[in-house]
């Protein structure tokens, strides 16, 4: 029979960040714990499924309390947007919208599709460096626009 001071494996995480968040939640609750395989998974993420991910370990006597702490819903943020100033259905006036699908999941950066003009294509060949324009890219439908 295992003693209450023996260390047991409690949970496994594929990402070191998620494991560290769980570890800090347990330490904040006063439950001592540690992680294993963290450095290996951080350096070689493809080894995570093979090694069982980043493993969280606790003492046998703290296992039930640790499970209770990890199953709690995290505390909401201290600051929340003023609900009265924003209507629920009103779009954000600053965020660009995709003209194709209307999604606000849009980012501005280097274009993923061919945006070469004749002269930028010639310069790209001469400089051996692709000169791409910047455009908005919709992650919902994949449409790019200026």
TrEMBL record:
<dbReference type="InterPro" id="IPR018551">
    <property type="entry name" value="DUF2007"/>
</dbReference>
<feature type="domain" description="DUF2007">
    <location>
        <begin position="16"/>
        <end position="72"/>
    </location>
</feature>
<dbReference type="Pfam" id="PF09413">
    <property type="entry name" value="DUF2007"/>
</dbReference>
<dbReference type="InterPro" id="IPR011322">
    <property type="entry name" value="N-reg_PII-like_a/b"/>
</dbReference>
<protein>
    <recommendedName>
        <fullName>DUF2007 domain-containing protein</fullName>
    </recommendedName>
</protein>
């Amino acid at each position: 029979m295992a003693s209450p001071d023996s260390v047991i494996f409690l949970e496994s995480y594929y990402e070191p960040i998620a494991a560290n968040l769980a570890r800090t939640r347990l330490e904040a609750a006063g439950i001592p714990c540690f992680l294993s395989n963290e450095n290996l998974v951080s350096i070689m993420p493809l080894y995570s499924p093979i090694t069982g991910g980043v493993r969280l370990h606790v003492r046998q006597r703290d296992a039930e309390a640790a499970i209770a702490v990890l199953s709690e819903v995290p505390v909401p943020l201290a600051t929340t947007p003023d609900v009265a100033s924003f209507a629920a259905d009103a779009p954000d006036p600053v965020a660009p919208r995709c003209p194709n699908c209307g999604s606000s999941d849009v980012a501005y950066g280097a274009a993923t599709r061919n945006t070469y003009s004749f002269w930028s294509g010639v310069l790209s060949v001469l400089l051996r460096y692709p000169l791409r324009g910047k455009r908005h890219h919709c992650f919902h439908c994949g449409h790019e626009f200026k």
